[in-house]
């Protein structure tokens, strides 16, 4: 499994391109102008099959339409954040001095959904609290497993819960769903640096005790 991070947009949202050794891959959270992503995909000959969104806020979907044509299976988002793509009010862009809109997703996700991309298996974990449709994604390739945590979990922090649709108690409950993962499991958040489950259990002040 190969992972390439692209910090995109005004908030430096982490967009991830992940692919296997056959060049089959997917994109997570294209949050802003994404020409660097498109160029890298083309230069490496990566076959992008899907774009997944960890949630529907504008800073995670701003580059969606620019990359949409690269994904032969389209866009996937949790069903509870589906209308964020088409509603600047729901994706909060109308509160940020601009309006971000995209076409509806081709696939609506639910908790426990599984899908394959090349050799990789993706499992969807519904983790509301930052948004109603927030998700984490467990990506498995052979014996390797990683967690894409979106804005559910950051290094030493968590996503905001004071925005419309957020709820701190719900977000803390969502964190409990990550508690049984291995301590050395690598975590790739929506903003900021990579971390591990073990580091967050030790040092994150929001981790449920």
UniProtKB/TrEMBL annotation:
Sorted UniProt keywords: Hydrolase, Metal-binding, Zinc
Domain (Metallo-beta-lactamase) ranges: 12-191
Xref: InterPro entries: MBL_Glyoxalase_II, Metallo-B-lactamas, RibonucZ/Hydroxyglut_hydro
Cofactor(s) this protein requires: Zn(2+)
Gene3D superfamilies: Ribonuclease Z/Hydroxyacylglutathione hydrolase-like
Gene Ontology terms, MF aspect: hydrolase activity; metal ion binding
CDD domains registered for this protein in UniProt: metallo-hydrolase-like_MBL-fold
Domain of life where this protein originates: Bacteria
PANTHER family: HYDROXYACYLGLUTATHIONE HYDROLASE GLOC (PTHR46233:SF3)
Record's protein name: Beta-lactamase
Upper taxonomic lineage: Bacteria, Thermotogati, Synergistota, Synergistia, Synergistales
